[in-house]
TrEMBL record:
The keyword Plastid does not apply. TPR repeats lie at residues 153-186. Residues 65-74 have a biased composition (Low complexity). It comes from Salvia splendens (Scarlet sage). Residues 73-123 form the F-box domain. Transmembrane segments: none annotated. CDD domains: F-box_SF. Gene3D superfamilies: 1.20.1280.50, Tetratricopeptide repeat domain. SUPFAM superfamilies: F-box domain (SSF81383), HCP-like (SSF81901). This is F-box domain-containing protein. InterPro entries: F-box-like_dom_sf, F-box_dom, F-box_motif, Sel1-like, TPR-like_helical_dom_sf, TPR_rpt. Keywords: TPR repeat. The lineage of its organism: Eukaryota, Viridiplantae, Streptophyta, Embryophyta, Tracheophyta. Residues 14-74 are annotated as: Disordered.
Length: 359
């Protein structure tokens, strides 16, 4: 914590220097732990859910101006190299640039990470074909490996992803574990999923990593942990715990969790039964591109008399591969005028899914 305070101080100083201020005035059916503490219990409330929360907000170290500025500067520059690099490994490029302005020691220590960030961005260009660059998984992997060797946690995760796509699962697990042990939630989640998909699966260790990522706010990990609770994989089966983690993941923007949260509210499993909240989460899942939710939400709209919008969702579900949606769509289209049919297709063409959490 002492080192994190120094780094926070250094970043504030660097940012003020950049602005010319020298004086520093004084942040699908998708139903189905060393050991971490038991997951927080989910308390039932009428028409909603309540998650265990800390009663006090976290306190961050504050920098107070000291008359002996030289002693503070010496303390900042004396932060051990390993501690500095570990804390800064997940910094964005602007943060790295700001931290490098603190003192010469920091500039030299963070130079590899600055190089790593440049390599990571280049790797993203090769992976996704950005900036007029031809897509190349091989070149992307090369950039990610070089960036990971310089300490980039983000590159470690992406290197693991490419190895996984190539079918080189053991190499993928190596990089996922490195990122996970450095505290990265995405690395922890991917490592856990690789354990769940192993033959035989290592469910106990998978749940431990999922819980670490989940309490850090990783939506996909929260959803996977919910599935483990729902199916009793590596943990005692608990519908209430499952519903609570589905709800957290849904609030975090994960479409599959939105759909399952809707089902929990609809059936009263783990959450107090509520048709209103069930409809709310079903629509959210549909708007985030969940095909089965689009189908069910479309049917609900039609039953409420909104055939136009209902058929749009059925069309979207059909395009996404929901086989049951096509017959229902056709039956409704036959009852609409030619103008309404054209409008429905036009609305489906212009529709764009809301951004979902891929984490």
């Amino acid at each position: 914590m002492e080192y994190e305070m120094y780094i926070s101080v250094g970043l504030h100083r660097a940012q003020h220097r950049r602005h010319g201020q020298r004086n520093l005035p004084m942040k699908q059916k998708q139903w189905p732990r060393h050991k971490p503490a038991s997951p927080p219990s989910i308390k039932k409330q009428k028409n909603s859910y309540a998650l265990a929360k800390s009663s006090k907000p976290p306190k961050f170290p504050q920098f107070n101006p000291s008359p002996d500025a030289s002693s503070t500067s010496t303390s900042i520059s004396a932060v051990p190299y390993d501690a500095l690099v570990r804390i800064a490994s997940s910094f964005t490029l602007p943060d790295l640039r700001a931290a490098s302005l603190v003192c010469r020691a920091w500039r030299d220590a963070l130079k590899p990470l600055s190089e790593a960030m440049a390599l990571f961005r280049r790797g993203k260009q090769f992976k996704h074909g950005l900036g007029r660059v031809q897509p190349s998984l091989g070149k992307a992997l090369d950039c990610f490996l070089k960036a990971a060797a310089r300490g980039s946690i983000l590159a470690m995760v992406d290197a693991g992803l490419i190895y996984w796509e190539m079918g080189k699962f053991e190499k993928a697990v190596v990089w996922y574990r490195r990122a996970a042990e450095l505290g990265d939630p995405a690395g922890q989640c991917n490592l856990a999923i690789s354990f769940l998909q192993a033959k035989p699966p290592n469910t106990k260790e998978a749940v431990e990593w999922l819980y670490k990522a989940s309490v850090a706010g990783h939506a996909r990990a929260q959803y996977q942990l919910a599935l483990c609770f729902h199916q009793g994989k590596g943990v005692e089966q608990s519908v209430q715990e499952a519903a609570g983690w589905y709800a957290r993941a849904a609030e975090g923007g994960y479409a599959r969790a939105m759909y399952n949260t809707s089902l929990c509210y609809s059936l009263g499993e783990g959450l107090v039964q509520s048709d209103m909240l069930a409809r709310k989460w079903m629509r959210r899942a549909a708007d985030h591109g969940h095909s089965k939710a689009q189908y069910e939400h479309g049917l609900a709209l039609i039953s409420e008399g909104d055939a136009m919008n209902g058929v749009v969702y059925l069309e979207l579900a059909t395009r996404a591969g929901e086989m049951a949606a096509a017959p229902a769509r056709d039956a409704v289209l036959e009852q609409l005028s030619a103008t309404c049919r054209k409008r429905a297709v036009l609305l489906a063409d212009k529709w764009r899914a809301l951004a979902s959490s891929s984490r």
